[in-house]
Specification:
This protein is mainly beta. The chain is 4% helix and 49% strand. Among the domains are: 123 residues, Methylamine Dehydrogenase, Chain H; 60 residues, Zinc/RING finger domain, C3HC4 (zinc finger) (Herpes Virus-1), CATH 3.30.40. A hairpin with a 3-residue loop joins strand 13 and strand 14. The longest helix is centred in the last third of the chain and has 7 residues. It is found in: Early endosome. Keywords: Endosome, Metal-binding, Repeat, WD repeat, Zinc, Zinc-finger. This is WD repeat and FYVE domain containing 2.
């Protein structure tokens, strides 16, 4: 059993200049079998177990490629790609096409031929990219960026076509995860939420998942059980059951007065004057989307099928209508006890690896909850 890491210096956000390969010894402990120094701080990496090809993104914009030996005790340099003008933020190696996809702080998406090392093409994103996924069947690439936008491109051998862009987060996109079977894209954000985008359904369906108290840092998906794993800066590991019929959250309605009791809101001067009443603050029911006052929305409830695992504001009539069955949780919550910055899920073993800003790597047996 092996794992590969590049250490972070925590608070400064800068990476170290070493790559380590960890092997499980007979004692049951993990020890580094390789300690390799890099010419520039490491920023991201991608590993393909089938070919044992390791691609490492560096702060200077270079992608360095290595092949690991069968016993994982040696890494041999293969080639370098001069991919970006500044720090590489994401890397994906696509074995089926022999492509290396990458994004950088220079706001460029690029793809290279891994056989020749030649740059095949590029695309300038609206902001620095922080999420990257690829669908081999359709050759669509999904790019999430710090502005909160997700861009879909159609890649050809030497050119690309913009398919569409969309946004649903109020913060930047921090992670993407693609399910090629159900054809849905998951995006995590600094706004603490996860959104499931039904790409294959072509109906524009977007399902919100609210289960973190800090930004979502990483996403993984267990296709065989249809469970999403999200990890956040709050140390939370949330396992979402996506094999249930979820509901879209309603659009918030606009109104100058409470849509339950007709009391004016504080900007509705005419109605305040006519009725001789003090204007009230506007709120919204998370279940029906109506604009309501505080008195008409004094209750709180979880609505798991709408993605609200925590209690949220609902109007009094919706609170009465929500059944105990509808309040049944669709996610389980676990505390990793560190600020997670990266995860890797091994579906065959049911193991989850997390690494944090505390420079600690933790290995979790997820079989009791991902099954």
């Amino acid at each position: 059993m092996w794992y590969i890491s590049s250490y972070y210096r925590g608070i400064s956000g800068q990476c170290s200049m070493t790559v380590r390969v960890w092997l499980k010894r007979d004692s049951g402990q993990y020890w580094p079998s390789i300690y390799h120094a890099m010419p520039s701080p490491c920023s991201c990496m991608s590993f393909n177990p089938e070919t044992r090809r390791l691609s490492i993104g560096l702060d200077n914009g270079t992608i360095s490629e290595f092949i690991l030996s069968e016993d994982y005790n040696k890494m041999t340099p293969v080639k370098n790609y001069q991919a970006h003008q500044s720090r590489v933020t994401m890397i994906l190696f696509v074995l089926e096409l022999e492509w290396v996809l990458s994004t950088g702080q220079d706001k460029q998406f690029a793809w290279h031929c891994s056989e020749s090392g030649q740059r095949l093409g590029g695309y300038r994103t609206s902001a620095v990219a922080s999420g990257l996924q690829f669908d081999v069947e359709t050759r669509h690439v999904f790019i999430g960026d710090h502005s909160g936008q997700v861009t879909i491109l159609k890649l050809e051998r030497e050119n690309c076509t913009l398919v569409t862009t969309f946004r649903g987060h109020t913060g930047g996109v921090t992670a993407l995860c693609w399910d090629p079977v159900q054809r849905v894209l998951f995006s995590g954000s600094s706004d603490h939420s996860v959104i499931m985008w039904d790409i294959g359904g072509r109906k524009g369906t977007a399902i919100e998942l609210q289960g973190h108290n800090d930004k979502v840092q990483a996403l993984s998906y267990a296709q065989h059980t249809r469970q999403l794993i999200s990890c956040g800066g709050d140390g939370g590991i949330v396992v979402w059951n996506m094999d249930v019929e979820r509901q879209e959250t309603p659009e918030w309605l606009d109104s100058d007065s409470c849509q339950k009791c007709d009391q004016p809101f504080f900007w509705n001067f005419k109605q305040m004057w006519d009725s001789k009443k003090i204007g009230l603050r506007q709120h919204h029911c998370r279940k029906c989307g109506k604009a309501v006052c505080g008195k008409c929305s004094s209750k709180r409830s979880s609505i798991p099928l709408m993605g609200f695992e925590f209690e949220v504001r609902v109007c009094d009539s919706c609170h009465e209508a929500i059944t105990d069955e509808e309040r049944a949780p669709t996610a389980t919550f676990h505390d990793s006890k560190h600020n997670i910055v990266h995860v890797h899920f091994d579906a065959t073993r049911g193991w989850l690896l997390t690494s944090g800003t505390d420079k600690v790597i933790k290995l979790w047996d997820m079989t009791p909850v991902v099954s």
